[in-house]
Write a structure and sequence with these properties.
The complex is a heterodimer of chains A (372) and B (146). Chain A has 372 residues and is α+β, with helices and mostly antiparallel strands. Chain A contains 14 helices and eight strands. In chain A, helix 4 packs antiparallel against helix 11 (259-283) and helix 6 (171-196) runs antiparallel to helix 11 (259-283). Classes of the chains: A alpha+beta (372), B alpha+beta (146).
């Protein structure tokens, strides 16, 4: 019979979380050195789902690489495609019709809400509450149905094209989007009563893993991680792209830096995205959704180009170095979660393991996007 | 001491609020369908794997230009054809889709200028054999013709 291991008082042990663990939401492995229930040090091990997207970018032609971007972040795929098409359009000087830009923004914002809803459900489930996930998925389903009717797919969209969109939206989509906005606002009130105002939930998150703005800057964190720590930065407002300057929206910033602040930022962002969708639908101009003048074979002129966009997970940067050929010379993808995740090693030292998992949930990690 | 009891009090209140919301959801009609007994109709733009389109006589629209083959990022499509003697045009003899590598990006459908391929609406695709996903689209079209 096995006898339980007796640890010396100052002895530590190594605990492996993952790579196949539900709390890591994917194939992420965290090697934790534990002293009892407290974490002495932690090391995130990545690379389990590396698919060489950057290398694929070098060997595929520009249109052939379009669908790769939606395979990076499966929850907020359209934001990444948006960055890619904007970059190539900038490099090749393609003029995009206004209607296409407006529709892109509508799609990206709806996708952002869907992504935040899924994060909300999964995060509360990490903390032990199961039902909010069901409500969140129900709301998310409305968005997925709308996007499916337009793009033809539910998760890995390939909808944006260089110079416009794959196809135009119909009246059915506009009506569905308009009815969705008040429904989502009603649901947000429900989430507030059910989750945000819940005493147990608040006690579980308040003061957990406070991140200082210096630390966020050190690791290059963005999205709710940075905005929850008082860094007032949003690419949509600070480095405007597409038609975002046309819209009136706020960038929610909280100063506490704890897990609750990150949660509050994302919940507030859903409301702001709804505002953007509302305004974009009101202002939606008529016209074509594809550029009239577009080179048949897309070839970026030699040079160095960069485009940053605000995706659901933070600021996504994409850099293109072209030598004038059919394929890029180099395509660098700067994924936001990669930076956000590396905070974890330093921030979770001395934390209880249950709190560390709650903290990890608040970072909103999507592993295929880290490894890409 | 007071904080302790006030915590319990507020905890109970938020518990009751949560239970109230759950109860209201409980008596609402279900939003799910009991698949596979009930199915939803697929939307018109749904992207299944591609299939060949035929003209009124049942002959494929495909003129073997090879644009779809070149547009595909994953080299899923392989086409075979023959050129009958005295004819200028090629005739399609085989069109195979390797669905194991296809990511449904739609580059092939977009590249086609002869409306020879379109997305199917099949989604019930499951098999334990890899070979089942090497779909011979030409054979499927011939079978449809019969």
């Amino acid at each position: 019979m096995n006898s339980p291991i007796q640890l010396q008082p100052d002895e530590t042990f190594i605990l492996n979380v993952g790579p196949q663990h539900p709390a890591t939401h994917g194939v992420l492995r965290v090697k934790m050195e534990m002293s009892g229930e407290y974490i002495v040090s932690a090391e995130t091990v990545i690379g389990y789902i590396h698919r060489m997207h950057e290398k694929m970018g070098e060997i595929k032609t520009y249109p052939q690489f379009l669908m790769n971007l939606s395979r990076m972040d499966y929850l907020g795929a359209l934001g990444y495609s948006h960055g890619h098409v904007l970059l190539v359009e900038k490099a090749c000087a393609i003029e995009v019709p206004e209607r296409a830009e407006y529709l892109r923004v509508v799609m990206v914002e709806l996708n952002r809400i869907a992504s935040h809803l899924f994060w909300f459900g999964a995060f509360v489930m990490d903390l032990g509450g199961f039902t909010p996930l069901m409500y969140a998925l129900q709301d998310r389903e409305h968005i997925l149905d709308m996007l499916e009717a337009v793009t033809g797919s539910r998760l890995t969209y390939c909808y944006f094209r260089f110079g416009g969109l794959y196809n135009d939206v119909d009246d059915q989509f506009i009506t569905a989007a308009r009815t969705f906005i008040p429904r989502m606002r009603k649901s947000l009130k429900k989430y507030r009563r059910l989750v945000t105002d819940n005493v147990i939930f608040r006690k579980r998150l308040t003061g957990i893993a406070p991140l200082s703005p210096e630390m966020c800057r050190k690791y290059g964190a963005s999205s709710a991680v940075a905005r929850g720590s008082g860094i007032n930065f949003d690419v949509r407002r600070n480095e405007p792209y597409s038609v975002y300057p046309e819209f009136d929206f706020d960038v929610p910033v909280f100063h506490a830096g704890d897990s609750l602040a990150r949660y509050m930022v994302r919940m507030e962002e859903i409301e702001q995205s709804l505002r953007i969708v509302e305004q974009a639908l009101d202002k939606l101009p008529d016209g074509p959704v594809m550029a009239a003048k577009k080179p048949k074979l897309i070839k970026a002129p030699p040079g160095d180009y960069y485009q940053a966009v605000e995706t659901a997970r933070g600021s996504f940067g994409i850099r293109l170095v072209s030598d004038g050929g059919k394929t890029p010379y180099r395509l660098k993808l700067r994924s936001p979660t990669y930076s956000n995740m590396h905070l974890f090693d330093e921030a979770c030292q001395g934390m209880l393991i249950m709190d560390a998992l709650a903290f990890m949930g608040s970072l909103d990690l999507v592993i295929p996007e880290i490894d890409r | 001491m007071i904080a302790y009891f006030s915590d319990i009090y507020h905890g109970l209140i938020s518990l009751l609020v949560g239970m109230g919301i759950t109860f209201r959801e409980f008596i609402k009609p279900p939003v799910t369908v009991a698949y596979p007994y009930e199915t939803l109709t697929m939307c018109a733009r749904y992207r299944g794997h591609i299939e060949l389109l035929a003209d009124d006589e049942g002959n494929p629209n495909c003129v073997v230009c090879g644009l779809c083959e070149r547009a595909c990022p994953s080299e899923c499509i392989s086409i075979t054809s023959v050129k009958p003697e005295g004819s200028k045009k090629k005739v399609l003899t085989g069109y195979t889709l390797d669905f194991t590598r296809c990511s449904l990006c739609g580059s092939c459908v977009e590249s086609c200028n002869f409306s020879a391929i379109a997305f199917s609406r099949e989604y019930n695709l499951a098999s334990s054999r890899k070979e089942d996903f090497h779909i011979d689209l030409f054979k499927r079209l011939e079978e449809k013709k019969r």
